[in-house]
Design brief:
The structure is a single chain. About 25% of the residues lie in helices and about 30% in strands. By secondary structure, it is α/β, with parallel strands linked by helices. The protein has an eight-stranded mixed β-sheet with strand order 7-1-4-3-2-6-5-8, with no helix packed on it.
Amino acid sequence: MQRSTTDVWVGFLVLLGAAALLFLALQSANLLSLNWQKTYTVNALFDNIGGLKKQAPVKSAGVVVGRVKEIRFDDKSFQAKVILAMDVQYQFPKDSSLKILTSGLLGEQYIGIEAGADTANLKDGDRLQSTQSAVVLENLISRFLYDKAAAPADQPGGH
């Protein structure tokens, strides 16, 4: 009987440890977000979202003020429609602007929001008009190489 009770406790602790590891893995990959704060949704259209993913943070001055709720393709404008869930404790003017930024050189992408000067704040369902698409590293490299190939060669001995 003693051995059976010990086996049950060991099994329980192993399951608890596995559940904790799974929780940490999902949380660190932004695949699980436990947020009990109230939110309001705003949306925006981008020409190119790069590698932006669902649950990516929305930051202002380095502080997370919301998350990407959903990403869709708008077949009328042929742009990416990004729906954001913003925490109600953070209010932004209607003329705020959004940029898709990258953490570090090759880090994850997130949305940066810069407050505007309008006196009216964003409400649930509003659309932000001022957006700046993601800077795609491959496009920068190809543009640099194309510009180098198109530039005339320097004359030898010329200054």
